[in-house]
Each structure stands twice: as structure tokens, then as C-alpha cells.
Amino acid sequence: MLHQYDLNKRKDDAFIPGVSDYAVSADKKKILVRSNAPWSIVAVTPKPQPGAGKINVDDIEVRIDPRAEWTQIFNEAWRINRDYFYAPNMHGADWNAMRQKYAAFLPHLATRGDLNRVIQWMCSELSVGHHRGGGG
């Protein structure tokens, strides 16, 4: 349940039932809300009617290029380690060379799991036992 509190009246109001996620717009006039599965955009006032503002996503198609996406993910994993790894000397690994070494596998990937494995191999060059990755 998403609640709305009026500071002037000092009153709490049950605003939208069944909310699993929401975000308020920057101007604080609208709310993107997920209630009982569908997404909706509703005004902050007045209290929305059930089903109001539903976003029709049934016909949305997203075209992706997995190879381009995987290359971007690989490069970001490399960059994040370059910028934030706790040891400035990368535990002796030539990090630029590691990028080139493991990027050679990118054209041969068949799944996201393959990408995770390549990133894991690259990060294993840092010789640290608590470095993990996954997901996707």
C-alpha cells in the first residue's frame, strides 16, 4: 500500500493499494507506479481511480544486439576494475594487456553465461579470492 501524508492536515491516506514499486517524478506531480503487475503513471492529486494511467506495454518490442551489449558489459567490467580495484598496482597484472587478452574471446561468445565466464577469467588475473561476478 502506498500512503500519502498531508502535513497540513496531519492525515495519512491509503493512496494506492498493491504497490510493488514506484518512483516520483522530478517535479513531484506524477508517480510511476507498479500495482498488481501493470505499470501506470498517475497524478499525485487527486487520488487515482483503480486502473487509471495504465501503460500499455503489451505490444512493445525491443531489438537488441547481444554481441554489442556483451562487448559493452565486458568493457564496463574492465573499466570498473581499473577505476575502483583496491590495489593501484592491480596486484601486478598489466590491466591494459588483460583487456586485449580476454577481448579476443568476445566474437566467439554464444550466451551471456559465456560472457560471465570470460569476465571471471579476466578478473582472476587480479589474484584475489574474493572477487566475484555473475547475473545477466
Provide a descriptive summary of the structure in words:
By secondary structure, the chain is of the alpha+beta class. The protein folds into two domains: 2-43, no CATH class; 66-124, Transcription Regulator spoIIAA (2-Layer Sandwich). It is built from three helices and five strands. It has helices spanning 66-84, 95-103, 112-124; strands at 2-6, 11-16, 19-24, 30-35, 39-43. A three-stranded antiparallel β-sheet has the order 3-4-5, with no helix packed on it. Strands 1-2 form a two-stranded antiparallel ribbon. Helix 1 runs parallel beside helix 3 (112-124) and helix 2 (95-103) runs antiparallel to helix 3 (112-124). The longest helix is centred in the middle third of the chain and has 19 residues, at 66-84. The two termini are 30 Å apart. The model has no long low-confidence stretch (mean pLDDT 90).
CATH architecture of the largest domain: 2-Layer Sandwich
Low-confidence stretches: none
Largest sheet properties:
3 strands, antiparallel
Helix content: 25-40%
Strand content: 15-25%
Q: What's the pLDDT, averaged over the residues?
A: 90
CATH C-level category of the largest domain: Alpha Beta
Alpha carbon gap, first and last residue: 30 Å
Total discrete domains: 2
| Strand/helix succession | EEEEEHHH
